[in-house]
Design goal:
- By secondary structure, the chain is mainly α.
- The chain folds into 2 domains: 235 residues, no CATH class; 243 residues, no CATH class.
- Helices cover 81% and strands 0% of the residues.
Length: 483
């Protein structure tokens, strides 16, 4: 039960981070145009492509060595990882500046790249410094400090946005906030400060780098899937990046809900499997799939139908053109919720290598689709490519599951969720008509309230009689007993 509580707290912290980051974008969108916000998105996306170079799975490497080492060895390992992180910083920064020069041939901005790189780099340093506390079960630094960082970002943007002449200057705030976070993280080193700096040898650093390459490859494919489209759009215009990024950030916040659910529930899933209770584990798996299909499918349909008005209300008239991109991206809410469930389940049963292969193929499809679709279609092409890649992940995961008996993926388990979503979709249509008829500042709030109420009512009517079908294994206390 303690593991479940810790997972829930970390998930809540990560969701709060995403919400605060979203607030930064909302504030910036009100005072900067889409071009300015696009600059901010572009440079952070560019730098994030090089994150695998400065983060060779250092967190995982340290935690792996923690349980097999003495205290002195742990301190030496941490010193080696920090030294390696410092050594890799300059090559990564130079590579990011070079790519920016190639993409923005007539107007490169090394200062913007450097500031964004500093923000990302300092955030990673702080996270690595907090690993000794995390390994000892002290999660408060990992829960509190990231929220403090993002809170400082929100405060800084509100205070200084009027002084910024370009969107990339928001990176000053991020770099400062993450620097403060790194300093605060030093408290996690109490009793485990890095040592043995003078004894470090090149051979030891090379060994650590080699051990981190598999983690780095996985991170690389994830970064490609997340940021390659924004970098490509930057070759067209920063305005395209801003409009697309504004739509995508809303999706990211909602997608964080599904990730949190998976991290909170699947420790219990793994415990049941370890105890040999595979039938109960299978019930949890199918129940979570059904609940996610209902909940996030409802949100996705609402995004498709009400997306343009949502963008207009959240960001203002300057971002009205992002409505179409949001409508195309809305299915991601459902797709990611399902791939999160299946991905966590596959990793729980030891299919990490297959999960990595699926991620690699999806990243390759994402790159190819973006290269083909962005030049003629811009942000619309980027949205289509992103949804195609995530759909491919779900198809490949489903194909893998069909070969396993312990994780039942059968199309029939989605019959009732599909029926439910059809009813929800029909219920949205009159709300859209009302929204178009009434004053634009009122209908979004009204339609959202009515949509939620109607969704709850429909769910109650359909789900009450089949409560065991929808939630069997989730609300019966089995997870808690497994903990």
């Amino acid at each position: 039960m303690k593991l479940l509580l810790h997972s829930s707290l970390l998930s809540l912290s990560q969701l709060t981070e995403k919400v605060l980051s979203f607030v930064v974008i909302i504030v910036a969108s009100r005072l900067l145009n889409a071009d300015g916000v696009g600059e901010f998105f572009y440079y952070f996306s560019l730098v994030s492509l090089f994150l695998p170079i400065i983060d060779l799975g250092f967190d995982k490497l340290f935690l792996q060595s923690w349980y097999e080492s003495s205290n002195s060895k742990r301190r030496e390992t941490l010193a080696a990882l920090l030294a390696l992180k410092v050594l890799l910083a300059l090559p990564a920064l130079l590579a990011a500046c070079l790519l920016d020069t190639v993409l923005q041939l007539h107007n490169p901005n090394p200062l913007a790249v450097t500031l964004c790189f500093a923000a990302v780099y300092l955030q990673g340093v702080g996270q690595l410094i907090r690993r000794p506390a995390f390994a000892r079960g002290k999660l408060h630094p990992d829960i509190v400090i990231p929220i403090i960082e993002k809170g400082l970002c929100v405060l800084g943007v509100i205070l200084f946005i009027d002084r910024f002449t370009s969107g990339w200057q928001i990176a000053y705030v991020y770099a400062g906030a993450h620097g403060i976070g790194a300093i605060c993280s030093l408290a996690g080193l109490r009793g485990y400060s890095p040592s043995g700096w003078k004894k470090l040898q090149a051979r030891q650093l090379v060994t650590l780098a080699r051990a981190g390459i598999p983690f780095s490859l996985s991170t690389f494919f994830v970064m490609i899937s997340l940021y390659f489209d924004s970098v490509m759009l930057g070759m067209i215009s920063f305005e395209e990046v801003g409009l697309y990024g504004a739509a995508y950030r809303v999706i990211v916040v909602v997608m964080g809900l599904s990730g949190g659910t998976c991290r909170a529930l699947f420790p219990g899933f793994a415990s049941l499997r370890a105890e040999g209770r595979t039938v109960d584990a299978a019930k949890i798996f199918t129940s979570i799939l059904r609940v996610h299909a209902m909940l996030f499918g409802t949100i996705a349909i609402g995004g498709v139908i009400l997306g343009p008005r949502l963008m207009l209300t959240v960001y203002g008239e300057n971002f009205a053109a992002s409505g179409l991109a949001f409508q195309l991206l809305a299915p991601l809410v459902l797709l990611v919720s399902l791939t999160n469930v299946v991905g966590h389940a596959l990793e729980a049963v030891g299919e990490q290598r297959q999960v990595m292969h699926i991620t690699m193929r999806a990243a390759a499809l994402n790159v190819i689709s973006n290269l083909l679709l962005i030049p003629p279609l811009g942000m619309v092409g980027a949205a289509i490519a992103t949804v195609l890649a995530e759909g491919a992940v779900l198809i490949l995961q489903a194909h893998l599951l069909q070969r396993r008996e312990d994780l039942p993926w059968r199309n029939r388990i989605f019959l009732r969720p599909v029926f439910f979503l059809i009813i929800i979709g029909v219920s949205y249509l009159p709300l859209r008509a009302i929204a178009q008829y009434l004053d634009q500042s009122v209908p979004l709030i009204a339609s959202t309230i009515v949509s939620v109420c109607s969704g709850i009512l429909i769910a109650a009517i359909i789900g009450f009689a089949g409560k065991r079908y929808w939630l069997d294994g989730v609300l019966t206390g089995r997870i808690g007993s497994a903990s």
